[in-house]
Amino acid sequence: MASERVILGIDPGTNIMGYGVICITGNQMRLLAMGVLKLNKYDDHALRLKIIFERMISLIEQYHPDELSIEAPFFGKNVQSMLKLGRAQGVAIAAALSRSIPIFEYSPRKIKQSITGKGAASKEQVASMLSHLLTITELPETMDATDGLAAAVCHYFQKTAPEAGKKFTGWKSFLAANPERQG
Question: Are 8 and 21 contacting, i.e. CB atoms less than 8 angstroms apart?
Answer without folding.
Answer: yes
